[in-house]
Design goal:
Pfam family, one: PP2
Structural class: mainly beta
Helix content: 10-25%
Keywords: Lectin
Radius of gyration: 19 Å
Largest sheet: 8 strands, antiparallel
Distance between the termini: 38 Å
Protein name: 26 kDa phloem lectin
CATH architecture: Sandwich
CATH topology: Jelly Rolls
Number of strands: 13
GO molecular function: carbohydrate binding
InterPro entries: PP2-like (IPR025886), PP2-like/Lectin (IPR052147)
């Protein structure tokens, strides 16, 4: 029993060494245990990225930014009309050797795609930026009016960045910066605060042929992977 308790305590210390609150984050990988034969192997796994919540999120430890990073795929978001096949459909795309399930917009007038992340999942004292990853297909239309990209802070304040996507190149992935924020220096793993990010346009005109890959939440001084 003593040996098992010692091993559990050492495992917890190993997790916390390479990322904030990992003992809370890693159980949501969908696997009972994240295996590592050595510190270097664990570090490599965390830098390469670990799938969370049945493949709807990706976690990685950002080497340059020295903090937790995340990619929230569309299955983890709240998207208006996502279950109506007249407006959206699910497709798979291959990026960096991985197959990812993303959301393809057919046509919609009420565009609204929102995500949230708990403060405890983020590293304290780090400045984060939120990026929305999009692709406009060759026949995309209705993007001349500005799209709102919003970031809501735990205190309820919201920052909104407006951007027209009409001049963006077609059939090429691009990012739009939603905003940035600094995480509390002293927050703990029991923090219930959260940040919300959104992309929306509730105008009456139709917007067509866009693919939403998701939201990236990463340290501002990011290495974009190890």
């Amino acid at each position: 029993m003593v040996c098992l308790e010692t091993e559990a305590r050492e495992n917890l210390q190993i997790k916390e060494k390479f990322g904030h609150c990992l003992s809370y984050i890693l159980p949501s990988t969908g696997n009972p245990v994240v295996h590592w034969p050595s510190y270097s192997k664990l570090y490599q796994q965390l830098c390469e990225g670990i799938t969370l919540n049945n493949g709807t999120k990706i976690y990685w430890f950002d080497k340059k930014g020295k903090g937790n990073g995340y990619f929230l795929l569309p299955k983890s978001l709240s998207i208006a009309w996502i279950d109506d096949r007249r407006y959206w459909k699910w497709i798979f795309v291959e990026l960096s050797g991985k197959k990812l399930e993303v959301a393809e917009l057919i046509r919609v007038s009420w565009l609204d795609a929102r995500g949230k992340i708990k403060e405890y999942m983020l590293s304290p004292g780090i400045v984060y930026e939120v990026l929305c990853h999009l692709l406009l297909k060759p026949g995309a239309s209705g993007w001349h009016e500005p799209i709102n990209f919003g970031l809501t802070f735990p205190d309820g304040k919201t920052y909104v960045n407006q951007e027209s996507l009409e001049c963006r190149p077609r059939d090429v992935w691009f990012t739009v910066k939603v905003g940035e924020f600094k995480v509390d220096d002293r927050h703990g793993c029991d923090s219930t605060k959260e940040y919300e990010f959104s992309m929306y346009n509730h105008g009456g005109h139709w917007k067509t042929e866009m693919i939403l890959k998701g939201y990236e939440i990463r340290p501002k001084q990011s290495s974009c992977g190890c």
